[in-house]
């Protein structure tokens, strides 16, 4: 082989070595806590990072490893570490390089859990954050402090759907020797590969479109392998000998996968937010059809946007594919195959009408998730983003009447018929 | 660690142990466009078994100060300069691809300074096609793609890797793209211009082993056969399923072969 395998082929094959004993074509589920060492020298070699291998499933597992290498391949990274959830991935990635006294510059338009992590949880450990409007690059630049060690944002903001200007922000990071970490859950590697635009680390909730079936929770951190940790003394967790592993210098010895190795060596060992092998297997099944599903998600999304725009009970519709959206140009640049399948819209009659709409829909599921094969709806202000304050709600692009729609793979005519029922109920509440 | 050679900063990984020239020394030499991280699955093993390890980044490669040296002969002399700078009397050398040509030059010029020589996937010369040479000069992205595409066997193309979660091909890309733009082009020209392989191989006096990959597109069977033919009684080991990147593609098997050879010919303690 001299030519590289393409995306769909990697989705099916990357990372998997055919089982040498039985020849299983599917990636086997290694439902085991631990692994028998052939001899003491091999055991000590694995523990001392002299060689690859598995010792304990909290740290590595062969089924999880297939998923990690597959995602690294699809994303164009050097290494990946899967975690028990997307939030675990974010926490592990941040704490791999930030310590007490350090600072994050983050987009204000993020999932409520991310905002809460940075506003409430991390400050208890001395890590603080400043938030910037993702449409204001100068604000990002201005928020950089001497102790800033990370720039963080979601490519497609949740739920406001503003698009981060990846290259402009990557330039700011490069100028200050600060890595740029992108939560790329909403786009998946099929719609955009942030490393190709200068990002250094990506995070995904694999639970969402990558898995697609809503059966398993999981997260992943992907190391872009493109940040020069040794260019500054700001990242001692990567560049200074690490005592628990006999003074290993990750940057010197692991180079482009030093960051991922730090997560593996510290977070997975000392904290242990591991992905279960069964979950990895389920998520692999989803990943195999990622491009097919994403194309259908996008197709349904575009048809539903047109439907919503023309519906008398809808006050506004927001999606970056719309020319009226403030991020439309950035969406065309970074997401040419489609700007994701989350749509925001308002129902005439405000919050009560919105509630009536949600409760009257039968096919669309009312739940706190996105990226399922099934269509999902929720009222963010009272659910997913209810734990952030009013100012942060506004900064996140959330209004009281907003309904967040995660477009599924059903026949789009059936979704529209379901919504027709919802809007009739909303109209009764709103009057008129 | 950083140290100075010919007034230039040189970077080497020492496998997690401080460099100590009172121990037997193993020098690792990387191939074109790569750096010391190529040896990550080998250096720690020897460093924790009584050896002092130096996985060098050649001049002008990632952390070592440039410019890159333009000939294999100059690089062979530079290896000697490294040993002199660190007050090392002799060393075993483990080399891959272009590193093998450098090692042949060093071994033939300084036979008293080499205890054993391990040559991984190389011939006596490395002719480089014009398209790749030109791409390395003017279109590094294409050149790196060609190097990685040809360098790895099927396991690399499937982004497998011996370290769970790591894509060896992904890592290879990042190292090559992270290097200075001139590093790969200079390396490839140095390989293409090298003509002294036969003479250098015939002059090697130390125990030598040759590791050959069955699916190697960069050092094919005909080229490695010529190397074997001109060396004095080499140990020959074949890895039928590996591509050119043997130390990454079959690291455990490769490590065992290196271990047995070096332990026998250059024992530690």
Describe the structure concisely for a colleague.
The complex is a heterodimer of chains A (432) and B (269). By secondary structure, chain A is an alpha/beta fold. Chain A has helices at 7-13, 40-47, 62-75, 86-97, 112-121, 137-142, 166-175, 188-191, 236-239, 250-254, 258-271, 277-287, 290-309, 328-334, 350-360, 390-395, 412-430, and strands at 79-83, 103-107, 128-132, 148-154, 180-183, 201-205, 219-223, 314-318, 342-347, 365-366, 376-378, 402-406.
Characterization of this structure:
The complex is a heterodimer of chains A (432) and B (269). By secondary structure, chain A is an alpha/beta fold. Chain A has helices at residues 7-13, 40-47, 62-75, 86-97, 112-121, 137-142, 166-175, 188-191, 236-239, 250-254, 258-271, 277-287, 290-309, 328-334, 350-360, 390-395, 412-430, and strands at 79-83, 103-107, 128-132, 148-154, 180-183, 201-205, 219-223, 314-318, 342-347, 365-366, 376-378, 402-406. In chain A, strand 5 (180-183), helix 8 (188-191) and strand 6 (201-205) form a beta-alpha-beta unit. In chain A, helix 4 (86-97) packs across helix 11 (258-271) and helix 15 packs across helix 17. Chain A is globular, with a radius of gyration of 22 Å. Chain B has helices at 40-47, 72-85, 98-109, 130-138, 140-151, 154-157, 168-178, 181-193, 197-203, 221-230, 246-249, 251-265, and strands spanning 2-5, 8-13, 25-29, 52-57, 91-96, 114-120, 208-213, 235-239. An 8-stranded mixed β-sheet of chain B has the order 1-2-4-3-5-6-7-8, with helices on both faces. In chain B, helix 10 (221-230) links the parallel strand 7 and strand 8 (235-239). The mean pLDDT of chain B is 96. The chains are: A alpha/beta (432), B alpha/beta (269). Chains A and B meet through helix 3, strand 1 and helix 10 of A and helix 1, helix 5, helix 6, helix 7 and helix 12 of B.
């Amino acid at each position: 082989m001299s030519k590289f395998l393409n995306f769909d082929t990697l989705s099916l094959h990357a990372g998997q070595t055919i089982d040498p004993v039985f020849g299983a074509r599917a990636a086997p589920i290694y439902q085991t806590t631990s692994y028998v060492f052939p001899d003491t020298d091999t055991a000590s070699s694995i523990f001392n990072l002299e060689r690859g291998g598995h010792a304990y499933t909290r740290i590595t597992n062969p089924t999880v490893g297939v998923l990690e290498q597959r995602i690294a391949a699809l994303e164009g990274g050097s290494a990946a570490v899967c975690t028990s959830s997307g939030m675990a991935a974010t926490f592990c990635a941040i704490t791999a390089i930030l310590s007490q006294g350090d600072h994050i510059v983050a987009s204000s338009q993020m999932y409520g859990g991310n905002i809460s992590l940075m506003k409430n949880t991390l400050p208890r450990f001395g890590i603080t954050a400043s938030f910037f409007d993702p449409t204001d690059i100068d604000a990002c630049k201005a928020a950089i402090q001497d102790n800033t060690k990370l720039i963080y944002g979601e490519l497609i903001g949740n739920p406001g759907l503003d698009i981060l200007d990846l290259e402009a922000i990557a330039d700011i990071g490069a100028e200050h020797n600060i890595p740029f970490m992108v939560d790329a859950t909403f786009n998946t590697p099929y719609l955009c590969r942030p490393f190709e635009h200068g990002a250094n680390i990506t995070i995904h909730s694999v639970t969402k479109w990558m898995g697609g079936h809503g059966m398993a929770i999981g997260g992943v951190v992907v190391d872009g392998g493109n940040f020069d940790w040794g260019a500054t003394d700001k990242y001692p967790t990567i560049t200074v000998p690490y005592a628990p592993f006999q003074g290993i210098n990750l940057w010197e010895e692991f180079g482009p996968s030093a960051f991922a190795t730090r997560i593996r060596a510290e977070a997975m060992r000392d904290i242990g937010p591991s992905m279960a092998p069964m979950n990895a297997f389920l998520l692999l099944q989803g990943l195999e059809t990622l491009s097919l599903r994403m194309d259908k998600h996008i197709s349904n999304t575009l048809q539903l946007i047109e439907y919503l725009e023309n519906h008398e009970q809808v006050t506004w519709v927001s999606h970056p594919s719309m020319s009226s959206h403030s991020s439309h140009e950035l969406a065309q640049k970074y997401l040419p195959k489609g700007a994701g399948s989350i749509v925001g819209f308002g129902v005439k009659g405000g919050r009560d009408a919105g509630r009536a709409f949600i409760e009257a829909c039968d096919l669309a599921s009312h739940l706190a998730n996105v990226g399922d094969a099934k269509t999902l709806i929720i009222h963010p202000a009272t659910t997913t983003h209810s734990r952030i304050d009013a100012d942060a709600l506004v900064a996140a692009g959330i209004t009281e009447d907003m309904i967040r729609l995660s477009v599924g793979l059903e026949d789009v005519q059936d979704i529209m018929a379901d919504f027709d029922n919802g809007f009739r109920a909303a109209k009764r509440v709103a009057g008129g | 660690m950083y140290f100075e050679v010919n007034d230039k900063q040189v970077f080497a990984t020492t496998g997690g142990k401080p460099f100590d020239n009172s121990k037997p020394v193993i020098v690792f030499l990387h191939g074109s466009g790569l750096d010391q991280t190529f040896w990550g699955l080998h250096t720690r093993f020897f460093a924790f078994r009584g050896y002092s390890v130096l996985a060098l980044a050649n001049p002008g490669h990632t952390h070592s100060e440039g410019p890159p040296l333009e000939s294999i002969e100059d690089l062979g002399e530079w290896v000697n300069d490294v040993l002199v700078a660190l007050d090392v009397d002799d060393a075993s050398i483990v080399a891959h691809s272009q590193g093998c040509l450098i090692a042949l030059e060093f071994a033939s010029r300084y036979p008293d300074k080499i205890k054993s020589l391990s040559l991984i996937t190389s011939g006596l010369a490395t002719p480089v096609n014009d398209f790749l040479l030109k791409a390395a000069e003017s279109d590094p992205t294409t050149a790196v793609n060609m190097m990685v595409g040809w360098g790895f066997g099927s396991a690399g193309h499937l982004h497998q890797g011996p370290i769970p979660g790591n894509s060896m091909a992904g890592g290879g890309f990042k190292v090559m793209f992270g290097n200075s733009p001139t590093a790969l082009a200079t390396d490839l020209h140095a390989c293409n211009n090298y003509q002294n392989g036969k003479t250098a191989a015939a002059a090697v006096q130390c125990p030598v082993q040759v590791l050959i990959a069955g699916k190697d597109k960069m050092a094919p069977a005909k080229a490695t056969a010529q190397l074997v033919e001109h060396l004095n009684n080499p140990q020959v080991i074949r890895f039928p399923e590996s591509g050119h990147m043997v130390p990454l593609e079959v690291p455990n098997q490769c490590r065992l072969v290196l271990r047995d050879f070096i332990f026998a010919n250059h024992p530690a303690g």
